[in-house]
């Protein structure tokens, strides 16, 4: 379906943008953070710091814009900063796990719970 003229919008826009924005960027972002942390001991942080600050400022600005558009309190926009440290690495871990499972060809399922009828019911 991807890059197929029979599926114009889906094949040329939707699927490639999903691959790029929801899979590739999410998988690569924590590596960029690790490179930043690795640059600190070598004194290269002064070259990287402006880009990181601009990136964080853009995160806060976009979150503020989202709060304005949704008529939410603007102070909620600051929640984006802890998300950068906690949520994104967890999301990246899940994406990498899914990528590796897809490469292996392993089936992913929720699993089936065996019913035992062992819960007591009070009348």
Q: Name the quaternary structure.
A: single chain
- Mind describing the biggest β-sheet? none
Coarse shape: extended
SSE order:
HHHH
Helix content: 55-70%
- End-to-end gap: 56 Å
Derived from helix and strand composition plus strand pairing, the structural class reads mainly alpha
Catalogue the unreliable spans. none
How many β-strand runs?
Answer: 0
Would you tell me the overall average pLDDT?
Answer: 83
Radius of gyration: 21 Å
Strand content: under 5%
Count up the helices.
4
Molecular structure report:
The chain has 123 residues and is an all-alpha fold. 66% of the residues lie in helices and 0% in strands. The chain has a domain at 20-104. The protein contains 4 helices and no strands. α1 (8-39) crosses α4 (87-104).
Spell out the blueprint of helices and strands.
Blueprint: H1 8-39, H2 45-69, H3 80-85, H4 87-104
Quick structural summary:
This protein has 123 residues and is an all-alpha fold. It has four helices and no strands. The protein has a domain at 20-104.
Short key terms for the protein model shown above:
single chain, 123 residues, mainly alpha, 4 helices, extended
């Amino acid at each position: 379906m991807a890059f197929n003229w029979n599926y114009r919008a889906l094949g040329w826009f939707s699927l490639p943008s999903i691959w790029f924005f929801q899979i590739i960027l999410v998988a690569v972002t924590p590596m960029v953070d690790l490179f930043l942390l690795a640059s600190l001991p070598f004194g290269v942080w002064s070259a990287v710091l402006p880009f990181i600050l601009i990136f964080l400022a853009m995160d806060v600005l976009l979150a503020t814009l989202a709060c304005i558009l949704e008529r939410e309190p603007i102070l909620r926009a600051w929640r984006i900063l802890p998300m950068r440290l906690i949520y994104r690495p967890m999301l990246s871990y899940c994406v990498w796990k899914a990528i590796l499972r897809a490469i292996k060809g392993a089936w992913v399922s929720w699993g089936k719970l065996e019913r035992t009828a062992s819960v007591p019911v009070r009348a």
